[in-house]
Design brief:
Elements (H helix, E strand, L loop, with lengths): L4 H7 L10 H17 L4 H22 L6 H20 L5 H21 L5 H20 L2 H4 L2 H18 L5 H20 L8 H18 L7 H27 L1
Length: 253
């Protein structure tokens, strides 16, 4: 039978690191564009791309860890993200850190209770618990795209899009990484000229670009399948950039 590219790489003993490539990067850029376009709109509208990001993040992380379908774990992680969104909409922006920590704690407890009912071996339960907690944390942290200021979201999204696209180009690894970070900083600076950030947008763009590249690297590990690339490879760059956008936005604006 014909092997998938990741299966062939494993069978041939090649590197377990397989980058997502251009198509997932293009999808990340589209999702980043949606975040940027909806950022100035009412918060209910801003929720739409954030919820999509959280859904893809939850599914992608479980598949990245070889756990599928894992419906309960994915549902819990996704609901944790949506609960965070609703709580953020109902509270002031200055309370966002407490809201995120509170919802994260509650839903991590739910994940723990779910695994206590698991009748698998101890190792399998621990692996499932780790994947569930991490997926939940990522879905909750992705809500940072909602709690951040609209200007910060625009700058961060504008930086992540070119960063992942440049990283997907067929260039030597260190070269593409440097060019991707330069593209992120440049796009952040350009977006900053359109709002309150000004040239400080370059710093926020650089931070968001760094987080995006970390997300791409994580989505490249352990012979990932095409499905992993089209879920985790799409979502993780923006999900990991969310905390940077939320935390650095007020500092740099």
């Amino acid at each position: 039978s014909r092997l998938a590219p990741n299966q062939r790489a494993r069978a041939e003993g090649r590197s377990p690191i397989i980058a997502p490539g251009l198509q997932p990067a293009a999808l990340t850029a589209v999702l980043a564009l949606l975040l940027a376009l909806t950022a100035p709109l009412p918060e209910a509208v801003r929720c739409v791309p954030v919820v999509l990001l959280q859904a893809v993040t939850a599914a992608g992380w479980f598949r990245l860890n070889g756990m599928w379908p894992a419906r309960q774990g994915i549902a819990l992680a996704f609901l944790a993200g949506v609960t965070t969104d609703v709580a953020l909409l109902a509270t002031d922006r200055k309370d966002a850190p407490l809201v995120v920590l509170g919802t994260l704690g509650v839903w991590c407890l739910f994940v723990l209770v779910l695994q206590l009912r698991n009748r698998s071996s101890a190792d399998e339960r621990m692996y499932a618990l780790t994947a569930g907690l991490t997926s939940t944390a990522l879905a909750v942290l992705a809500a940072g795209q909602l709690s951040a200021t609209s200007d910060a979201v625009v700058v961060g999204a504008a930086a992540v899009a070119p960063a992942v696209l440049v990283r997907a180009l067929p260039l030597p690894g260190p070269v593409s990484a440097v060019l991707a970070l330069l593209a992120a900083a440049g796009a952040g600076a350009a977006a900053g000229q359109l709002n309150a950030f000004g040239t400080a947008g370059a710093l926020l763009g650089l931070a968001a670009g760094c987080c995006a590249l970390i997300g791409l690297r994580v989505a490249s590990y352990d012979y990932p399948s095409r499905f992993v690339h089209l879920t985790a490879g799409v979502a993780l760059p923006l999900a990991l950039a969310a905390p940077a956008v939320h935390l650095l936005g007020p500092v740099l604006s």
